[in-house]
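Hello forum,

I keep getting stuck at the same step: I have a sequence, I want structure tokens, and every attempt I make locally crashes halfway through. Rather than fight my setup again tonight, could one of you with a working pipeline run this one for me? It's a single chain of 122 residues.
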Amino acid sequence: QAQLVESGGGSVQAGGSLRLSCAGSGFTYSRYCMGWFRQAPGKEREGVAYIDGNGITSYADSVKGRFTISKDNAKNTVYLQMNSLNPEDTAMYYCAQGLSHYGCTYTTYNYWGQGTQVTVSS
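Reply #2:
Ran it on my machine without issues. Output:
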């Protein structure tokens, strides 16, 4: 079965950095949209960053210039480098695989990890 496991979350002070990793098994990331999502308590889940089958990335406006999504196809791992973190970034972060190769903002994401908590303190 397809599984995604996030790691790299933790607690960091405002202005700090974290790198999240999402390792997949049972499938490969390379051809599919991959997304990082986050959900803060009491808020809806939101898409943070996406990378498509060609490696083209897109970001939520709130994280542009601070977050970078990347992937290592050989390792079947996707990353989210988060810099200049602020308390508004505090959330549970999830990686997910989409059904499509492109149009990653709009596709359905069918496989999800369990999430990794990111807490940013001021």
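The longest strand covers residues 18-25. If your local run keeps crashing, start a new thread with the error log.
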